């Protein structure tokens, strides 16, 4: 059953369109459920998300960047009817700290692209608004493209390449 959009949903769409028009960026494509489509910023091989996560963790650890895999899920405890959830909703697949103490999260998507849910979009805004880094990564080429962020001081616009 399709959910009828409420005033907040419609307002969010108009806000995104106004922002795109103001900044000169193309408007973000949004799906009916509110998720947005993601595509790699540099060409990446089309591999599964699980493989992207594993490769990113190896790359980060090889470069001595502290990180951990983050899972979210839920299930019934034992044979009872108690249902429990774990993890932070919307958090990235990889969470860590840079050498300067900056918190970062990487949301991994398969190589050809994926979608960012409403919860992930909210988490991304929250992390970035609090001087953290939240990136959507589709493969190692894209992680290496963003490497300047990991080795330098955080900039909110992600525009800093080097000093």
Structure description:
The structure is a single chain. The protein is of the alpha+beta class and 163 residues long. The chain folds into two domains: 1-30; 32-151. It is 33% helix and 20% strand. The chain is built from five helices and eight strands, in the order αβαββββββαβαα. Strands 2-5-6-8 form a four-stranded mixed beta sheet, sandwiched between helices. Strands 1-7 form a two-stranded antiparallel ribbon. The chain is globular, with a radius of gyration of 17 Å. The model is unreliable at 152-163 (pLDDT under 50).
Work out the count of structural domains.
2
What's the β-strand tally?
A: 8
Largest sheet: 4 strands, mixed
Oligomer: single chain
Compute the number of helices: 5
Structural class: alpha+beta
> What value does the average pLDDT take?
80
Q: Could you name the ranges where pLDDT drops below 50 across 5 or more consecutive residues?
A: 152-163
Main sheet: which strands, in order across? Answer: 2-5-6-8
Order of helices and strands: HEHEEEEEEHEHH
Distance between the termini: 53 Å
Report the helical percentage.
Answer: 25-40%
Strand content: 15-25%
What's the Cα radius of gyration? 17 Å
**Overall geometry:** globular
Briefly, what is this?
This protein is α+β, with helices and mostly antiparallel strands and 163 residues long. The chain is built from five helices and eight strands; from the N terminus they run H-E-H-E-E-E-E-E-E-H-E-H-H.
Name a few traits of the molecule.
four-stranded mixed sheet; two-stranded antiparallel sheet; 163 residues; globular; alpha+beta
């Amino acid at each position: 059953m399709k959910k009828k959009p409420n005033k907040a949903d419609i307002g969010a769409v108009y806000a995104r369109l106004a922002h795109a028009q103001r900044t000169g960026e193309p408007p973000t494509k949004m799906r009916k459920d509110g998720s947005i489509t993601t595509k790699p910023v540099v060409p990446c091989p089309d591999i599964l998300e699980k493989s992207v996560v594993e490769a990113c963790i190896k790359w980060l650890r090889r470069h001595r960047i502290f990180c951990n895999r983050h899972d979210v899920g839920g299930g019934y405890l034992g044979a009872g009817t108690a249902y429990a959830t774990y993890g932070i909703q919307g958090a990235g697949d990889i969470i860590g700290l840079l050498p300067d103490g900056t918190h970062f999260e990487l949301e991994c998507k398969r190589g050809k692209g994926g979608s960012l849910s409403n919860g992930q979009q909210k988490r991304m805004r929250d992390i970035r608004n609090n001087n953290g880094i939240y990136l959507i990564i589709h493969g190692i080429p894209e992680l290496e493209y963003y490497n300047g962020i990991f080795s330098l001081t955080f900039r909110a616009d992600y525009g800093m390449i080097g000093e």
